[in-house]
Amino acid sequence: TGNLGDNTGAVSIAAGTNLDLYRTDYGLVLGNAISGSGTINAKGSGTTMQSGYALSGNNSGFSGAINITNSRLGVTAANNLGAASLITVNSGGQLYANGNFSINNNLSLAGNGWSETAGLLGALRLQSNAVYSGAVTLAADARISAYQNAGSISGAITGNKNLEFSAGTVTLTSDSNAYGATTVSGGTLQI
User: Fold this and answer.
1) How high does pLDDT run on average in the chain?
2) Which candidate, 116, 130, 132, 138, places its Cα nearest to that of 182?
3) What parts of the chain have a pLDDT lower than 70?
4) Predicted structure pTM score
5) Is the dihedral of CA 156, 128, 71, 2 positive or negative?
């Protein structure tokens, strides 16, 4: 229920229902306060610089799942993701955390990220000292970056898959990381 068009009214996603985003342009910002226990599916075309979305509202009442496929979902505050039970970034997708804040939602990662002008900058892209403090599970080989910037991960990274750090400065602070091989193809990895 609710109206996404005006970015001001509250929107509720009931259990067992989906809010599907699919656009071939870039820059859709959802500023509504989103609540409920349904699922947000950010989908995309797979074409460079298409299907970029952002959540900018206080979604602390949202407790459902978020799936990101062939698209970017950007956030600038922890409450943009609410209490989402699981954020799943599939191949071709990217969670883009831009700001000095901490995210503690559980995260499942796969792939090298969303296709942007500068390349594939990670299934998780951290900017402006963003911290990922939730548990990170590698569902497949994945890439993380802080392109031309810095970010850190304090949550444990697990999964029998390989992880690549490709740009910027990423700091890992957990002593509980347990995953496959680590590759640093660009930037700096601090442990």
Assistant:
1) 96
2) 138
3) 1-2, 5-6
4) 0.97
5) positive
